Amino acid sequence: SKATVSVLNWLTSTQHTMAVALSLLALTGAVAWDHHHHHHDWTPSPHSPPGPSRESAQVHIALGKTKSELNVAWRATDESKESSVEYGTDCSNLDKKVSGDSRKFTQDYGRTWYTRTATLTGLEVDTKYCYRVSDSEETFETLHRRQGAPYKHLLYADMGAKGAHAICDACTVDSESCDKDVCAKAQNPNAGLISEVATADLIFHGGDFAYDMGDYKGDIGDAFMANIEQLAAHVPYMVSHGNHEVKRTNLPHYIERFRNMPSNADVPTFHTVNGDGATNSMYYSFDHGMVHYVIFTSELWHHLAGMDRNVTIDKMVAWLKADLAEANKHRDEYPWILVSGHRAFYTSMEKGASCYPTDKPMREALEDILFDAGVDIVMNGHVHNYERAWPVYKEKATYSTTDMNAPMYVVSGAGGCHETASAFEAPEPHWSAFRSNTYGYSRMTVHNATHLHWEQVSTDPLAFPMSEYGKVIDDVWLVQHNHGPFKRTSAPQGTACPAGLAKTHDRFTPEFLGIAGQVDVPRDAPTWQHVAAFKEQYGEAAYEAVKAAALGKLNNATGAAGLYQWYTPPQ
């Protein structure tokens, strides 16, 4: 419009550009920071009222160390009640009972509560069980280790209490509450994670929970755990550690709440400010659905260093090598190997860089190990988008997923939170097969030893019509007839992706950003070309200003007045 052109002409004035940029940032509430690395190091108000999620037992299950075991975890407020689980194959007659343990949690300002765990034993695979924890009246059902391919695994990272759009379309950035009562009001109950519970074999959350678990005396952690109960009480909910779980107030929440992981780390327990003796879930491995999962923490290369002197990079890497060597002896039963740590090895989000500069030491330490072990998939988060690489090694790629000669790296950090994704402002690197800055989760369906189906499901109700909620936007088959260590002599060599292979699904269209038609670039050109031309013509500050204004419009259009606020206390 003429008004837009007038504003843009004014923005080009050097005396106004920075002032306008700062004003727009302030008006929209958008903050131009690197939200992937921002840490909320502030003390929450001690007067925050308790949320309704404190009444929930926040039940969640995890695989046990053997096929006949299942680990149940929950939250309790009454120390006098026993810690136990009743279970059985008949929901009306829970004829078995197992005692659990209880650990006091003292790190939330002004309150004490308890994490409890119990291991159900003597379970038969492919059998439905009902169970009830001692601190809840609700009975839950789970199908224990369903047998028979295909196996469906759901994977994502970076999901908060607010904005958990992957769970159901009723989740918003206005409220931390997105539990089963909220999702009962979903417009489309046949989409989102809630629609997958009946058929999913496993859910994996690759770090960054709640945003943040320890905030507001743990209310945010309570809300998040109450939200996922509708998933995690029925399907094993496996986890890894992220950068939002490194702060003094957040790390104990991660360690204590998820101490039901089947850890086999060579340092069996982990120390936090809440005390000693909790399960070390910083790195461990498990098998399920024809996949061997190996979990590690990327944060030993960052802020976590020194929090537990017994857990070090050297010990973890030695354990990782040994675990992968053992896994290769059992590829007849678990042919596919997936490794996950929170931070990304390969991402194009930062101006086409292969990874954030601060993450290069991690990649340099691990990339050879993963390649030499023949790891099929490396799944990361941290970056709040989705990006699938071709099979890649040392930044060289093979542009096929048939009989791969290197791991396929995937960033699946779009579970949804109050920190929005960023626009793609650089062209796709040659190793990038598909990228999207929409909310969503990954679906991995293992059909047999040679065929694995990988999909990305979009769950973005903010920037796309509700009719697209649950739409599959990336769909690829991995075919591998020769599982085992990759060979350096046949490693990927590609440095230029053939035209037309790379795909982008971008919520930040030039129209959304308000820069369409303002530069001499074809309207159907990728967003990054519009952005580059706009920056060259009007300057970096002008672009940041119009981007902030666009985010503000998105904020207002969805009624999300608190999109960039850290917390709205429950009423």
Write up this protein.
- The protein has 571 residues and is α/β, with parallel strands linked by helices.
- The protein has ten helices and 27 strands.
- Strands 16, 17, 18, 19, 20, 21, 22, 23 and 27 form a nine-stranded mixed sheet that branches.
- Helix 2 (14-28) runs parallel beside helix 10 (540-557) and helix 9 (527-538) crosses helix 10 (540-557).
- The chain starts with a helix and ends in a 14-residue tail after the last helix.
What is the fold's blueprint, element by element?
Layout: H1 2-11, H2 14-28, E1 60-63, E2 70-76, E3 84-88, E4 96-99, E5 101-105, E6 113-120, E7 127-133, E8 140-144, E9 151-156, E10 159-160, H3 180-183, E11 202-205, E12 209-210, H4 219-232, E13 237-239, H5 251-257, E14 269-272, E15 275-279, E16 284-288, E17 291-295, H6 313-327, E18 336-340, H7 360-372, E19 377-380, E20 386-393, E21 396-397, E22 408-412, E23 432-436, E24 440-446, E25 451-458, E26 471-479, E27 503-505, H8 510-513, H9 527-538, H10 540-557
Parallel strand pairs: 9-11, 10-12, 11-13, 17-18, 18-19, 19-22, 23-27
Antiparallel strand pairs: 1-2, 2-6, 3-4, 3-7, 5-6, 7-8, 9-24, 14-15, 16-17, 20-21, 20-22, 20-23, 24-25, 25-26
Q: Quick gist of this model?
A:
This protein has 10 helices and 27 strands. With 571 residues, it is of the alpha/beta class.
Low-confidence stretches: 1-51, 558-571
Q: State the end-to-end CA separation.
A: 43 Å
Q: How much helix, percentage-wise, in residues?
A: 10-25%
User: Whole-number radius of gyration?
Assistant: 23 Å
Q: Say how many strands there are.
A: 27
Alpha plus pi helix count:
10
Content of β-strand: 15-25%
Mean pLDDT: 86
> Structural class from helices and strands?
alpha/beta
What shape does the CA trace take? Answer: globular
Question: Main β-sheet, in a few words?
Answer: 9 strands, mixed
